[in-house]
Design goal:
Helices cover about 80% and strands about 5% of the residues. The chain is built from 4 helices and 2 strands, in the order ααββαα.
Amino acid sequence: MKDQYLLYFAGICVVVFFISFIKDKKGACMNFALRAIFGILSIYFLNKLFYHYGIMVNGKVLRAGINFYTITISGILGIPGIGFIYLLLYLL
């Protein structure tokens, strides 16, 4: 169920990205790449930080995986997308 919500959200993000991609191709690709790289680094360091301080949810350390979905969401939405990923982990 959790993966299904994440898949729907990633699909919506891809649609929004392609709509913006039509307007300015080179700028959109560069913007997406920079946000995705920053998102990967942010998720990595937030996972390390949560593990170090032992921030737990349901008895497990709050960690987001770095995969296609999280890269897509962080690449399209940036920092709010990373916040959304951790919010989903906290709520589900």
